[in-house]
Design a protein that fits this description.
By secondary structure, the protein is an alpha/beta fold. It has a single domain (2-215), classed as Metallo-dependent phosphatases (Purple Acid Phosphatase, chain A, domain 2, 4-Layer Sandwich). Helix content is 17%, strand content 24%. The strands form 3 sheets. A 6-stranded mixed sheet has the order 5-6-9-10-12-11, with no helix packed on it. A 5-stranded mixed sheet has the order 4-3-2-1-13, with helices on one face. Helix 1 (36-48) links the parallel strand 2 and strand 3 (53-57).
């Protein structure tokens, strides 16, 4: 089983050569600040790819996807459009969520929330036990979440503490995310889950990072 995972293409998707695979996973931020036309064009591109199964979540830049969601789900069909929800594909149970911890408050972006508060605790406690592959837009705390330009005295690791706690509780096989461009890469810490930050764009919003391929 080959998974092909990417996120944070920010409008550069047509410039990419996407590797072949069985399941394509997109972890948010296909636009800079999505309008309706951006959503339609990206959905058409995504569904033109030859992968048998496709899973997508939006990200904080994909602002037109927030709110009424039925039209977006229909637009992305037959791809599986997950908004804090699950789907079983090829015998694997996926849970996908577009939410991310806000780096700055107040925020002008979509699907975000104040860090490490009651909303965070509530959201991430809802990840179902038995999830094989977790797909979120934002990272967990201290996992591929370090920003380069933190203000003096601020924690440069901007991932979510409650998300990390629930990943350790559930122990999915994989956790795929994006959002923090400078965190691109993978790691396998002691919690038993393999983590992948799959951002295509770097910190300067240039699409230079290779698309991630994962063989199960």
């Amino acid at each position: 089983m080959r998974l092909v995972a990417l996120s944070d293409t920010h409008g550069y998707h047509k410039k990419l050569t996407v590797p072949d695979g069985d399941i394509l996973i997109y972890a948010g931020d296909f636009s800079m600040r999505a309008r309706l036309s951006d959503v339609v064009l990206f959905a058409n591109w995504l569904n033109s790819l030859p992968h048998e199964h496709k899973i997508i979540i939006p990200g904080n830049h994909d602002v037109y996807c927030e709110g009424d969601t039925d039209w977006a789900r229909k637009e992305f069909s037959p791809a599986h459009y997950l908004l804090h929800s699950s789907v079983e594909v090829a015998g694997l149970r996926f849970f996908g969520s577009p939410y991310s911890s806000a780096i700055f408050e107040p925020s002008k972006w979509a699907f975000d929330y104040p860090p490490n508060g009651s909303q965070s605790k509530r959201l991430w406690s809802q990840i179902p036990t038995g999830t094989d592959i977790l797909v979120t837009h934002g990272p967990p705390k201290n996992i591929l979440d370090r920003v380069l330009y933190a203000d003096p005295g601020e924690d440069p690791n901007v991932g979510d503490h409650f998300l990390m706690w629930n990943v350790a509780r559930i122990q999915p096989r994989l956790h795929i995310f994006g959002h923090i461009h400078e965190g691109y890469g993978s790691c396998l810490p002691e919690v038993g889950t393999h983590f992948y930050n799959v951002c295509v764009c770097d910190v300067e919003y240039k699409p230079v990072n290779p698309i991630t391929v994962i063989d199960l």
